[in-house]
Write a structure and sequence with these properties.
- The chain has about 120 residues and is mainly alpha-helical.
- Helices cover about 45% and strands about 10% of the residues.
- It has a 3-stranded antiparallel β-sheet with strand order 1-2-3, with helices on one face.
- It is globular.
- About 30% of the residues are buried.
Length: about 120
């Protein structure tokens, strides 16, 4: 597997964590764990490398839900309860984007969340 793909996935998820002020030690540790697991996964299924970035984001999202709560939250919807964004397409690629779970609208491409 080309390590540049994993480094790109790591950088994109870290950019989104940083934009939402969630780049804590625990979150970065979850990111490193996700990258390690997905590196092995991509070595086993080379055709799946287009999915790696989105899957890493989903893995981090799942890990943070367990320890810190929902991430990333939707900042576009002013009404209603707080809710998350999720990666679309479901398998994480190609070209993963964050989508509002309430409206289905694209919030940002992976790696380009704003912190507003």
């Amino acid at each position: 597997m080309d390590d540049r793909l994993m480094l790109d996935a790591r950088a994109r998820v870290l950019a989104d964590l940083t934009a939402r002020q969630q780049a804590t030690a625990a979150a970065v540790s979850a990111l490193e764990d996700a990258c390690s697991a997905r590196h092995w996964w991509a070595e086993q299924w080379p055709e799946g490398t287009v999915y790696v970035a989105g899957l890493v984001a989903q893995d981090v999202q799942d890990a943070l839900f367990e320890s810190a709560g929902r991430w990333p939250l939707c900042l576009d919807c002013a009404e209603g309860p707080a809710h998350s964004l999720y990666i679309q397409p479901d398998l994480g690629g190609p070209d993963p984007v964050w989508v509002c779970e309430e409206t289905g609208e694209v919030a940002a491409a992976l790696g380009f969340l704003s912190g507003r």
